Amino acid sequence: MPALPTSNPTLADLATRLTPEGSVESMIVEILQQEEEMLEDMVWVEGNLPTGHRTTIRTGIPEPTWRRMYEGIMPTKSTTAQITDNCGMLEDYGQVDKALADLNGNTAAFRLSEDKAHVQGFAHKLSRTVAYGNEGSEPAAFTGLSPRFNSLSGAESGQNILDAGGSADCASIWLVNWAEDKVHGIVPKGSKVGLQVKDLGEQTHTHADGSMLQVYRTHYRWDAGLTVRDWRYIVRIANIDVTDLTKDAQSGADLVDLMTDAVERIHNLKGGRPAFYTNRRIRSFLRRQIKNAKNINLTLEQVAGKPVVMFDGVPVRMSDSLLLTEDEVQ
After folding, report:
1. CA distance 278 to 176
2. 27-31, 173-177, 280-284: which has the minimum mean pLDDT?
């Protein structure tokens, strides 16, 4: 496997650097990013294990001591802990009737149109797992963000959970600073990054009743996981009651205030790819609340040739994988 590019590589970076422009891989990445904006920012790192990635995280910082002349001091050291994050294998098969694919004289174009639907499915499934994946309830998947930020007290990460006050029909806004030494996606050691699509060619498909037909079959696979090396680079705004939101923030969650607090709680926005993630309904109320408050925190800027909503200079991405029916975080 070629060495992965350094400096916080995204899927787009990898597709550009490791494959020719216009290749199947680069087209797949483009579709993925169109479907789920989270995948546009997410940094990817090759794991150091065949099934995932073992990371040493710092749990304590040494504190120096003031001393006077001729006095000694006790040496100190930092404290660390090792965590292992597992990857999951996401797979699917697609097939189309050969006669139908050949009907219009452009078999490749027809099959590509079918591939797009499968790629969209992978984008939504992976993004949903990044947000909610839990190996405790789905052992074959990987553990995402929500199980790591699911308690207002107890875990250290609770310091970076903002309670919006809701108790039912809840949603979240996430602020993540993606980077190789902070938060990143992982692939098993020696495997390929991103969605792999393999054309299996023409095959015979047998129905349950024994009848057969010729089909074109495609295999799709994505091995992926998530590592959170430092919880200080993630903030979750939880318990946003969707039914209580108002466009003037006179009742319900004040999204502008909460997101301002989130920016201040993140340890450092430099050295990575910071972004907010929310669903369509929440972002719609955010834009209306800012308009009614005459606040200039939200801007529309051109980034890489396309308009991007920004809050205090941080992109506000849309993710249809983020639910409007989350349980209350307590």
Report:
1. 12
2. 27-31
The confidence score (pLDDT) of residue 56 equals 75
**Encoded tokens for 306:** 């396309």
Q: What are the tens digits of pLDDT across the range 213-249?
A: 999 999 999 999 999 999 999 999 999 999 999 988 8
Q: Is residue 237 part of a domain?
A: yes
Query: 73, 65 in Cβ contact below 8 A?
Result: yes
For residue 290, the SS3 value is helix
Residues 6 or more apart whose CB falls under 8 angstroms from that of 179 comprise: 8, 43, 233, 271, 272, 273
| 113: in domain | yes
Range of the domain at 92: 11-59+81-318
Vertex 112, ends 108 and 115: CA angle to 5°?
140
User: What distances in angstroms separate CA 105 from CA 13, 96, 101, one per listed residue?
Assistant: 35, 15, 8
Judged by DSSP in three states, 197 sits in strand
d(CA 283, CA 245): 11
pTM recorded for the entire structure:
0.84
Q: Which residues pair with 212 in a beta bridge?
A: 206
Contact 227, 184 (CB under 8 A): yes
Tell me, yes or no, whether 329 lies in a domain.
no
Question: What is the DSSP code string of 163-180?
Answer: E-S--SSEEEEEEEEEBT
Q: What mean pLDDT value characterizes the chain?
A: 86
Number of domains in the chain: 1
Q: Which two tokens stand for residue 297?
A: 């925190």
Helix (H, G, I), strand (E, B) or coil at 122: helix
Is 199 part of any domain? yes
Alpha carbon distance 9, 224 (integer Å):
15
Tracing tokens 């308690």 back to the chain, one arrives at: 151
Closest CA to 27 of 108, 129, 138, 148: 108
